[in-house]
Amino acid sequence: MLILVDGINKSKFTTILDDMYKLRARVFQDRMGWDVRVTNGREIDEFDELDPAYVICLDDEYEVVGCARLLQTTGPHMLSDVFYDILDGEPPLRSALIWESTRFCVDRDRLAKGTARNSVSYATCELMAGILEYGKNSGISDIITVIDPVMDRVLKRSDNAPYGYVGKTAQMGKVKALAALCDCTDERINKVRAFAGIEGEIFLDEEIVIAAEQARNPGIMESELHSYCDEQLLCATTERERSDALALKDAITEMLRARRMSDA
């Protein structure tokens, strides 16, 4: 299943985003040998600072197993600012209706082989369908994606063949890269879904994911409570307010201690 994380809701999914950056480091640096910037085991670049939209694939345990990044082409994006050799002198496409998809990857180590749910093939197609559905529902007409020839073949095998290409195939470090165009239409979405046997809603409700995160990582809720208490202390303007904030912090600390003891 998928979760959409963007500039509006990203504060709710910091753990998922962190796991996504770690997955990107394992895939693009460790497995594919790309020349990417990895810091503390996380692959993050300047385009992640522009509040892109992320389509993130989760398995049945709500672990991150795939992702893709979507950026408007009206501002900085990889094709115009990094992969400009592909354009071969042509101006970059710039339109509010055309978005760029990059950093598409799946976790082959965690996913199984074959075509069933929680397989590499299924997760790949689910991500493709999610990108297209997000685009269609957001008024985006087309996705331009910088891919290598291997991914180009994957798109074609998945009944998601690009309808066109921009510029030329260019050497980018150790790999070749090209820019492909896919339209966000019901016809294309239905083809990808039919190829992989995807039925029903593929985007999870935010609250379900948040609840699952808290169940798996109770420390998240503890951190939020402590942060709230610290904010109250910082905002205190009188001795009474400070005293109340300290009392609240002590009470929450005791409550969490008691809960840990009962869980032990």
Give the number of DSSP strands. 9
- Rg, Cα atoms, Å: 22 Å
Helical percentage: 40-55%
CATH-assigned fold name of the largest domain: Aminopeptidase
Order of helices and strands: EHEEEEHEHEHEEHHHH
Widest sheet, order of strands: 1-4-5-6-7-9-8
Number of domains: 2
Distance between the termini: 32 Å
CATH class of the largest domain: Alpha Beta
By secondary-structure content and strand pairing, the structural class works out as alpha+beta
CATH architecture of the largest domain: 3-Layer(aba) Sandwich
Give the DSSP E fraction (strand runs of 2 or more residues): 15-25%
Uncertain segments: none
Label the overall shape. Answer: elongated
Number of helices: 8
Description:
The structure is a single chain. The chain is an alpha+beta fold. It has two domains: 2-215, Gcn5-related N-acetyltransferase (GNAT) (Aminopeptidase); 218-263. Helix content is 43%, strand content 21%. The protein is built from eight helices and nine strands. The strands form two sheets. Strands 1-4-5-6-7-9-8 form a seven-stranded mixed sheet, with helices on both faces. β8 and β9 (175-183) form a beta hairpin. α7 packs antiparallel against α8 (239-263). The mean pLDDT is 89.
